[in-house]
Amino acid sequence: MISEQAQMFSPEDSSRPQPNLTKGLNDPQAEAVVHGDGPILVLAGAGSGKTRVLTHRVAQLILEQGVFASRILAVTFTNKAAQEMRERLHSLLGTDGENLWITTFHSAGLRILRHNASRLSYSNQFVIYDDQDTKGVLKQVLKDLNINEDRYPLDTFSRAIDKFKNNYILPAEAGQRASSIETDLQAQVYDRYQKVLLAANAMDFGDLLVNTVRVLREFPEVLDYYRRTLHYILVDEFQDTNKVQYMFIRLLAEPRRNLFVVGDDDQSIYGFRGATISNILEFEKDYPNTKVVKLEQNYRSTGTILNAAHAVIEKNKSRKAKKLWTAGDDGDPIRTFIGYDENQESEFITSEIRKLITQGYKHSEMAILYRTNAQTRALEESLVRGKIPYKIFGGLKFFDRKEVKDILGYVRLLINPADNQAFQRVVNTPPRGIGAQAVQAIADEARETSMPFLHASVTVAQSNKHVKKFVELMGELKQAAQTMKLGEFLGFIVEKTEYGPRLAAMKDPTAQSRIENLQELESLGRTMERPETSTEEVMKDFLDRISLTSSADVPAGEAGANDPNQKTDTVSLMTLHLAKGLEFPVVFLAGMEEGLLPHYRSLDDVVGLEEERRLCYVGITRAMKVLYLSRAHNRGMFAAGGSAGSAGGARVVSRFAKDIDPKSLTAVGTERSQGASFIEGYPRFSFDDDDDIDTRIEDDYSNTWRRKKKYPSRDDAQPTYSSKTNVSLDQIRNLLMPADAMKQESKTPEEYHGKPSAVFEQLAPGVEVIHPTFGKGCVESVKGSGNTANVTVKFDSFDEPKKLVYRFAKLVLG
DNA sequence: CATGGTGGCATTTTT
DNA sequence: TGCCACCATG
């Protein structure tokens, strides 16, 4: 991948010790870089050198204004962008930049919460729930609240919760705001959902932001600490920040207001995630003396490409007037193609790539961009047949692979025994005779005792031999973790759970690639190992890193961290969203059709359509020299639906393409195409496919799998590790559930509320109590004493009274 | 009571 | 294409 503006670095720029930081910059760029204290908004058009301005600004602060690197926080959109910025600063600053905090919003939140989550009654060791975990929790919540999923689909709730969090609306406020049956249900689900997460000591992505802001707002000493630490704050892609993120920034920057934000209202494409252009407008309101700098000179694209981009974007009503210009040439016309269907469109792109290669372009200089991930299927097939090396960004991540998540599920459960989602994932994976009934029994036991599923399963193990075996397995894994390094341990899990051997015994051809993925995971674990650090600590880091690795950071299906410097020569495939911030000499914009771009889900509202237009704009402006627009006349994915925008199955050209001056378009792909118009035309049923694409699918991949085969086939499969079952359930219980694993990090509710610990003596029927998770309630009965004491409490928010083990329940008097 | 197979169905964009 | 719900079997 070519980095934005990378080619503009001349050797003089990085000469030390006194680099002239404004050399080679244009006037507005320089103005932004040398800006003193106080707020500044840089409106940076596509390709106007904004990353360069950001990095030089940081260097300026350190080298010219004498600011300590540790006083600077730079927030970027993805880990990849952060990494790139770090590298560029390294070449500008050398080791002076070592203490810079360059990070994403989510990573920043995670770091703050790892130190402060206990203030919010989480443990600082909390885990991060991904989308799947989240859905699992929601499913349970809907069941508990007797909500009919057919009537109120699960997705509407996950979307609603997401929206609450993007806008920093906490459950209580959501409840107050509720104005209809729907919104009231949403608030109820949200409330309960948060309680389940808290009980599992887990946070979802949104919580990483919401809880960070909560900590900063509710604990002045924490806010004070970070304000004293961070004096200069820079934010990239400011147009795509949402309300919580903006609150976070504002809180930190408030006393000094040294806030440097860079954005482009024309590239705001994350409205569905709560981002609003109004953040840019509000910025000038919130910081009245803001300096505004506009970067309008484009260093990336040809005149033709810029004109097309402008023609598309100028139709938007809500945007700041501006026009990019270039000192360069007009360049080539934009090339167009209409395929009979998506397969022909893909074949065309493949064959063009081959031609461009013969003309001297590298694969890595080309990208195929599209609106939806579903479009990759046809493209991928065709590229494979054409033997074009490619990488797909986004889509299914390596860490989203089922087998990888399964094995990591064991790791998660060992680290955080309260992780009930991880428990449910692994308890019968691979199948070991623990079905729905057994899991329900465990869930019931867990509910009655207010204990995590894992703990409850130890009790159920007394009456269920399958569960007993599982519990013993977990005990063995726990012990192994104490002696093995991470890589070895991951391999041990794969063997010991029989996950690997079972895969090896499968006829399914994908099984071999899954085994490879697990081997990849193992070697990834090995790279994480640190001599002085316990495997448990390493595992925690490992999980954090995995949780925050976004699909933009690493190509689909790759683990990433293995060989960061190995740049391979491949064509890049990605959605328009992921392409933001990148540039390529050659760009294919596939699927230029109504219903796809703009997507049919956005057709009926103006705001949505404007965002689609920006998306198209982002796509066009990724291209440096050569831009292709292609579309198909028929598309499989819509054949059945007959969706809006496609009358009678025939696909109509995108309205955005119609805005481009036809004189700058030229049809390619067939000799007969000279007069054919991309905008009104019909597909040609052949193109000059003279490259003789070998249609035999080569067996390269399966050969590699076979070579690396590690596991024996079923016949000689034997347990590699002897199993020792002479450990008692009680011993395992203690092993899996050390007292401090259940204890909240630093504060019990007693400490938390500053009350003496003699709560138990005062418990009696009728006494009001508060539970950290369940809230307020009234004691119904008290039984036993010491470690086994039980308290039955009727909580306000639950119909059924709950039986709690006093030792764990952390009750305080109400 | 657990499992594996089959058939139906929907499918934006992402930290 | 991939996921879920349902059903027949062990």
- The end-to-end span amounts to 59 Å
- Mean of all residue-level pLDDT scores: 80
Beta-strand portion reads: 5-15%
Number of strands: 20
Shape estimate: globular
Q: Sketch the major β-sheet.
A: 7 strands, parallel
How much is the radius of gyration in Å?
29 Å
Structural class determined from secondary elements: alpha/beta
What does this structure look like?
This protein is α/β, with parallel strands linked by helices and 814 residues long. Strands 11-12-10-13-14-9-15 form a seven-stranded parallel sheet. It has a six-stranded parallel sheet with strand order 3-2-6-7-1-8, sandwiched between helices. The longest helix has 19 residues, at 181-199. The radius of gyration is 29 Å and the shape is globular. The N and C termini lie far apart (59 Å). The chain binds a DNA duplex (15 and 10 nucleotides) through helix 9, helix 18 and helix 25.
